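W.,

You were right to be curious about this one. When I first looked at the sequence I had no strong expectations either way, so I just let the prediction run and decided to look at it fresh. Below is the sequence, 153 residues in total, followed by the output.
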Amino acid sequence: MRLLAEHSGSLDLHPTYTYLLCCSLFRDTCRVVRDQESIVGFVTGLRKPRSPEVLFVWQVGVLESARGQGLGKTLILDLIKDSKLPLPQYIEATVAPENSPSLKLFQSIAKELKCEFSQSSGFEAHHFGSENHSPEHLIRVGPIKHLVPTTFS
């Protein structure tokens, strides 16, 4: 996952330990897709501790050669339909305003789920301290009222 994030050119890169924690502590809200050789896509998320009806999507990564096929969307929809967990009422994420692929991804999910897509302030650039980081808007999809079939297997 870290290597895919590193080679994506657009994802924030976190220590390997962070990805290991996601896959162990939050394995019910994370997905990885592999081909015969390597990971081609992943999504990391968690249920918000104070708002368990919200699935917070932390990071979505898709190998460049696998982009444009709806893999990120399929991974997120698979998390929603996972019968081990209650259906979330909302999906949230933070997205930089210039990250149009991520914005389009969540807008597409809202359209498929027939629910609202909204943006509000999240983290401003100054919240990141000395890092040169763009602001991150909080996006929200929901309320989710029904499941949709997916092609993920």
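Here's what jumped out at me. The radius of gyration is 15 Å. And, maybe more interesting for your project: The CA atoms of residues 50 and 109 lie 24 Å apart.

Coffee later to discuss?

I.
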